[in-house]
Amino acid sequence: MRIDSLDFKIVELPRKERFTIATGSSDAVRCAIVRLSVERFEGIGASSANSVTGETPDGISASLNALKQKLVGRNFSSAQVLSE
Q1: Any idea what DSSP says for residue 43?
Q2: Per residue of the chain (84 residues), what is the pLDDT tens digit?
Q3: H-helix or E-strand containing 66?
């Protein structure tokens, strides 16, 4: 199978209610909406930046851009394509 595209967009989504934990509160979340196309299949997912995991929108963008460069156009027969 061939990976045709990996696209993403960083968006800010408002929360229905304020989210509060011991380290702070937020009224919105910044996340990456990701779309991966493989031949006739398409998958959609999301990755949220947060202080708990240390992820940032810039870090998520950098990781997804690196994956995009490595994966788009590649053919694979198993999930082990990343180890090559």
Answers
A1: E
A2: 889 999 999 999 999 999 998 888 889 988 999 999 998 899 999 998 877 788 899 999 999 999 999 999 988 876 555 554
A3: helix 57-71
